[in-house]
Write a structure and sequence with these properties.
The chain is α+β, with helices and mostly antiparallel strands and 263 residues long. It has helices spanning 56-74, 82-98, 149-158, 164-169, 208-211, 216-223, 229-243; strands at 2-13, 22-26, 30-33, 41-48, 112-118, 121-127, 131-136, 139-142, 195-196, 202-206, 251-262. Strands 3-1-11-10-7-8 form a six-stranded antiparallel β-sheet.
Length: 263
Amino acid sequence: MMKRMIETSCYTSVGSRSGQQDAVYVTDGEIWDDSADGLHRQIAVLCDGMGGMTDGARASETAVTTMAYAFDRIRDSETVNLRSFLESSIVSLDRTIHEFPRESGRGSGTTMVCVLTDGDLFYTAAAGDSRIYFIHGNRMLRLTRDHNHDLRLKLWLSEGLITKEQYEQEGKKEALISFLGVGDISLMDIPEKPGKLISGDMILLCSDGVTNTLSEQDVLRILMSGESLGEMCERIVESAVSKNPNSQDNTSVILLRYLEELL
């Protein structure tokens, strides 16, 4: 018989900003064995409210709390299609946030990354430039794209619509082209099939406060330290904050780890 476990943890810092526009939520984790009845599902959601828009904090908090509530309603459902749940949730939240009151012509917006585990399977969803990484052994694989102008430019370049020189001269490559609140969202990363977890695998969700400051190698070194999930979450965030003390963005991470043990 096999004992199975999903461990979860999160950590967030305001950085050097005056307010917190990141929002995170993760369920507490679970231990079960092969004789346990029922479903074994967890969810992790990380949102980064857009500071250049109106009330990014409200947008991120709305997305996180709505996803947590929606997950509670389908957590024990044997008939729900989990990929469709993620897609419909993004579409609904995009519409909700787009309808927030506007100030000076500016709307509200937030990025979102979400991981939903179902036993040893995992589903991912992303909109914006927050990221999800899959850690297997000593390798860290990025599962999401940054939905920004650079992504669009590289597509145009590959299709021959612009030249390399035009690509190099283009500005504002980091400007987001997809996020919750855009109003008619169509660009999102939701794989058709779930991933498979084996013992020791981890999944990292992080805001760009991490990825704009630390390299993937920096993060991987921390993840290979053998510390607890909580310690690793804190070290990733505090490493970013200490590396950029004067202008560090809000910085947040969530970690999940799947473990198996023979009984």
